[in-house]
Amino acid sequence: MKHLISIRGSRLLLLVLATGLLGVFCPRASASLKTTQAPLKQIKIDLNNKPALRNGALYTLHVCTACHSLQAVRYSSLSQMLGMKKSEFMHDIGTNGRHFHDLITSNMPPAIIHAFVGTTPPDLTDIARRHSPAWLYTYLTSYYVDPSRPSGVNNAVFHNTSMPDVFAPYQGLQKPVMVKGLRYGSPAEVAIGVKPLSQGSMTQAQFDRTARDIVNFLYAVAHPHQQERERLGPWFLGLFVLLSLLTYLIYRIYWGRVITSKERWWRSVK
Q1: Domain segments of the chain as ranges
Q2: What is the largest CA-CA distance in the chain?
Q3: Quick check: helix, strand or coil at residue 246?
Q4: What are the pLDDT digits (tens) for 29-59?
Q5: What is the DSSP track for 45-114?
Q6: In this structure, what is the dihedral angle of CA atoms 46, 51, 54, 60, given to the nearest 10 degrees?
């Protein structure tokens, strides 16, 4: 018995020593996950704001779908989500020459897109599901001029992004706010924000509102049943509470009729 305890103790000691040596000789193994991040700008999602959803749909379908697809939804489904009749949707937003019941795909051939940006742009539905609204909003508003990049711009949230700044005509150009920090554990100059460099066709407040509308629309597309869940959620919770009360009453009635050990038949018979 003592022999087994000594073996286990020695194995534990070797494991502790190996872990310590790994931390001494390979400090980058633990530091590789450390990086300096730009603070995210919080945003409030309002799926009942139809004007905001329509404005976001307008910019998404006429700017973003030049490269990206939105294949989780059809134009006809957007019409219902935005509270618009078919005639209103076709007049105010349109389908870029496609049929009303088609899926929303990119307007540019994949080969041309890949040759231009070096990669295939992801589907916007997938992007909206993988990232939070705060991340998307900060990403759209955090482009800055970077001559070292092929597109001439970079992003404070997504370093070395392949996407060009398609909203520069509206927002204008920006310069980065750089600090000394860590990028994947290595010391580097990291952008933690942006400052205006030139004025676009929109004011800062107008573009921020447009970016919020785009994120609001993308969230609505990526979570098409969110409003239905919010509407049905209280009813389901009420049903669970009611079932819990009924179950408790049945429990009290059932166990109230069970004969305990002190009330055996030979003791209860007179």
Answers
A1: 50-222, 227-258
A2: 102
A3: helix
A4: 444 457 788 899 999 999 989 999 999 999 9
A5: --TT-HHHHHHHHHHHHHTGGGT--EEEEEHHHHHHHTT--HHHHHHHT--TTS-TTSEE--SS-HHHHH
A6: -70
Residue 175: how many other CB atoms lie within 10 Å: 14
pLDDT for the residue numbered 27: 47
Answer yes or no: CATH 1.10.10.410 is held by domain 50-222.
no
What contacts 24+ positions apart, CB below 8 Å, involve 142-147?
Answer: 142/38, 142/174, 142/191, 142/193, 142/194, 143/167, 143/168, 143/171, 143/174, 143/194, 144/173, 144/174, 144/175, 144/176, 144/191, 144/194, 144/197, 145/173, 145/174, 145/175, 145/176, 145/197, 146/176
The one-letter amino acid code at 131 reads: H
